[in-house]
Amino acid sequence: MTKIIGFVVIVLLIGFGFSWLADRPGVLSIVWQGQLIEMSLMVAASIVAALIAAVMIVWWLFNTVWNSPHAARRYFRSRKRDRGYQALSTGLIAAGAGNALLARKMTARTQGLLSADQEPLIHLLEAQADLIEGKYDAARRKFEAMAQDPETRELGLRGLYMEARRQGANEAALEYAEDAAKNAPYLPWAAQATLESKSRSGEWDDAIRLLDQQKAAQVIGRGEAERLKAVLLTAKAEEKFEIDPKAAREDAKQALKLSKGLVPAALVAAKSYLREDNLRKAAAVLEPVWKIAPHPQIAQLYVRARSGDTAVDRLKRAERLESLKPNNVESLFAVAQAALDAQDFTRARAKAEAAARIQPRESIFLLMADIEEAETGDQGRIRHWMAQALRAPRDHAWVADGIVSDKWLPASPVTGRLDSFEWKVPFGQVEGPVEDNGIDHALSSLPDVAKPEIREKIIEIPVPVKVVDPVVLNEARPVADKPTHPKNEVVNPVEEKRPDAVPFFGGLPDDPGVKKPNAEPDEKTRLKLF
Q: 341-345 long-range CB contacts below 8 Å, 24 or more apart?
C-alpha cells in the first residue's frame, strides 16, 4: 500500500512539474563544438526524462542478466523447500491420524528435501512414526537426542515424559517433568506434574514456590493460583498442627485470606485458638466461614468448643449459628442435636422436621429416631424413622475421583490433583429419594404412641368336677395304650398325657367340658360353653 501511494505521489509531482514548465515557455540554447542548438524548454525536459528512463531500463536488463544464475538457484531452492514443508505437514497430519504408512513415506520424502539441521520437526515426525509402528525404543532415542538440542529440548522432554507415563515409570516421568519445569516453569504439563508430585510427598514449601512461579509466568489465573495456594497452606498447617499449633494457625489464617470459604483452614485455626482456651477468637474464625459455607464439622466444633459447657449452653451456641445462617439445613440440624442433648424434645423435633423439609437425608431421620427413643421410647415409631433413614439420600461427605473420605485431603489419592475433594453426596447415590420419603409423608404414616398394656383380670367360674378313680380309668384303656411304669411310682392322672384324649384349648381329658371317646356324657358333668 505504501508503494502504491509513493508511485502515485511521484507521478503527480512529475505531472505538476511539466504543467509548471508549460505555463512558463522559453527557449533553451546550447553551443556544442561550434554549433548552436536551440529548443524549447518543454522539449529539453522531455529529452532529459527519456534519457533517465533509458538508463534505468538498461541497468535493469544488465542486472537481470548478471544475477540470473543466482536467481535460478534461489528459485529451485525455494521450490524444493516448499515441497519439503508440504511433505512435512502431510506427514505430521498422517502421524496424528495414525496412518503409519503415509507418515513413514512422508518422513523419507521430507528427509530428501529438507535437512534435519534446518528443520528440527523432522525428528518429531520420525519419533511419531516410530510410536505408531510400535518402535518405542527408537522413539525414545530420538526424544533423548531432541532433549540434548537447546532448540528442541522442551519437546524432547515432553516426549520422554509421555513415554514414561505410558510405561508406568512414574518416577522417571517425574524426573523429566522436574527437569523441564526447572528451566521452563511456564510449561503447564511440567509445572502441574511437579506440583502434584510435591503435594503427594508433602513438600509443601517447594510446591508453594513452584505455584508462585506459575502465577508469575501467567500459566494459571490469579484466582486459581490463590485457591491452590490456600489448599497447600492448609495442608501444611494440618501437618504441623500437633507440633507447632501457633505456626499452623498462621498458615491457616493466611489460607483463609486467599480463600475465605475454605472450611479445613478455619477448623485448623479455630482448634489452635481453642488449645489456648481462647474461645472468642476461635468463634471469630468460624463464624465468617459459617456464613459462606455452613458445614457440620464447623457446627460441631463451634457448639462443643468448651468441654465444661452444659447442654443448655451448647443449645445457645447452636442457636447463635442459626441466627448467622437462618433457614439452613445445617443450622437447623445443629440446633436439633443440641436441643436433644438438653432434653428439649419439642424444639428438637420441630428443628429436625424443618431440616428434613429443606433437605431430607439419612442423618436427619436417624436424629428423629433418637428423639423418639429419648421422648417416648416407642419401638414402633423408632423403627418407622429408621426405615425412613434407610430410604433417604445419604449424607454429604468428602468425595474425589470416586473416593469417599471422612476427612478433607489436599489432593486426590488416585490422580494427585490438588483441591479435588468436594463436600457432596457420594457417587452411586440416586439423585433424590427412591420413594416419596419426605417429612410430610413420614409424619402422615407415623404410628401413634402405643398406650401401656392393661392386664385383663381372669375370672374363675366354679365348675363341678367329676372325680375319676385312676385305677378304673387305667383298666378301661386298651392294653396297648396302657403305659408301663416302674414299681412304686405314683402316676398322676392329671400330668400324664393320654394319646386317646381329645385336646380342648389346653384342657385335660378329665375336664368335664371334654367328651371322652366311647363314653356316654353324664348329665351332671355336662357343661354348655355356648
A: 341/311, 341/314, 341/315, 342/311, 342/312, 342/314, 342/315, 343/311, 343/374, 344/315, 345/371, 345/374, 345/375
pLDDT under 50 in the chain at which residues? 430-436, 454-530
- The answer to whether the CB of 312 falls within 8 A of the CB of 281 is no
Rounded distance, CA 23 to CA 14, Å? 14
Residue 21: φ, ψ to 5°: -70, -35
Contact 448, 380 (CB under 8 A): no
Three-state helix/strand/coil letters over 159-207: HHHHHHHHCCCHHHHHHHHHHHHHHCCCCHHHHHHHHHHHHHCCCHHHH
Contact 121, 92 (CB under 8 A): yes
* 354 within 8 A of 326, measured Cβ to Cβ: no
Contact criterion met (CB below 8 Å) for 368 and 354: no
pLDDT of residue 117: 65
Q: Write down the pTM of the prediction.
A: 0.64
CB-neighbour burial class of residue 479 (10 A; exposed 0-12, middle 13-18, buried 19+): exposed
Angle at 183 between CA 182 and CA 184, to 5 degrees: 100
Residues 106/91, Cβ–Cβ less than 8 Å: yes
Residue 453's pLDDT is: 52
DSSP-derived pairing of the beta strands 422-424 and 397-400 = antiparallel
Task: Report the side by side order of strands in the sheet with 422-424.
Answer: 403-405, 397-400, 422-424
Instruction: Please give the distance of CA 304 from its chain centroid, rounded to a whole number.
Output: 30
Strand, coil or helix: what is 331? helix
pLDDT for residue 368: 93
- How far lies 14's CA from each of 5, 59, 257, 482, in Å? 14, 22, 73, 157
Report helix angle 153-166 to 121-132, nearest 10: 10
Residues facing 397 on adjacent strands: 424
Instruction: Answer yes or no: are the C-beta atoms of 301 and 267 closer than 8 Å.
Output: yes
